Amino acid sequence: MELKELDRVLPEEIEKRSFELITKELGEKVLDPEYELVIKRVIHTTADFDYADNLVFSPHAVSKGIRALKEGAHIITDTNMGMAGINKGALKRNACSVSCFMADEDVAEYAKLHHTTRACASMDKAAGLSEDCIFAVGNAPTALVRLYELIKEEKIHPKLIIGVPVGFVNVVQSKEMIMSLPDIPYIVARGRKGGSNVAAAIVNALLYQI
Amino acid sequence: MELKELDRVLPEEIEKRSFELITKELGEKVLDPEYELVIKRVIHTTADFDYADNLVFSPHAVSKGIRALKEGAHIITDTNMGMAGINKGALKRNACSVSCFMADEDVAEYAKLHHTTRACASMDKAAGLSEDCIFAVGNAPTALVRLYELIKEEKIHPKLIIGVPVGFVNVVQSKEMIMSLPDIPYIVARGRKGGSNVAAAIVNALLYQI
Fold this sequence. Notes:
Rossmann fold; alpha/beta; 11% strand; homodimer; 6-stranded mixed beta sheet
């Protein structure tokens, strides 16, 4: 293979070209205009067209998420990887912030003391904050389960839950639990798929629409 | 959905159970024992069984990668997200280190001056290091293309290239270029799929075998 076989696309054009190719391959599949840019960005991030069918949105989840970000939301992730994937320039322009408590010493101690996961303990730490947050969960189903419990106990009122943990144990159930909540805006990747990259892509897709 | 429907699995058992489920679902598919733990960890990270067929290994790429890590390799990633996903405890135990140059000021200046991408400029910066590195590329095909050029020019001799960028423009070609190199150990996700999460998962799968 020679270099000449590469597509000659300017770096700043690559994303545009990618989205054109995604649109082309989606063919006649109709995406809801409110969800379209989120779905396409997740496909762009994963090259996995399953997300055209997997992503489930509560009513007006995208516009509610965008509104929260416009007002300067605090985003909580369940991995440093998810936090690393969120566009810091776009966050800053909107006076938003992001935290991941997973590596915090108090979280490790709390998890040990309560025989729970650090992901759960991270959600408890977030519940202690004075503000309502956006949660971007791309890894730990136990984080979603704990969010569900905290919401049921009325200890927490997330502005949006991005529920896209990936995996084989309790992942599917944890997502169904979030989708059973009547009054919480959510964007969930139904099924096993997801990831910290997907969580970050969804946050970025919302930020880029501001 | 009630909490009782969750599988009652201890946190420390979740990964074991997940790998058992992956093994079960792979069914009669035979994986090369040298590659098996890498392939299964990528499936564990993505819940995407396509990786049972996508991942391509140069001869003894896994054992060569493990040997390099045992000797305390320096790993270069093309995203902070990929760097964030690598297990720092496992790195430290093996006296390994990881760098991502993408956000470095000198890289931004070099890219601007040479009308190239920061990913390319990052690879040039890595080529200036005194040691041979492991490259874990999960995002930028231009990073792989630049590695190919630097190898052809004999300016760089990677100990291993993990070539798993994701996307729609030049991604497939960049991976084929790496696979055309006769003497460089590589692990590549053939096709469009991959990601920083996949790159980190492969590094971790090697570290966990030490």
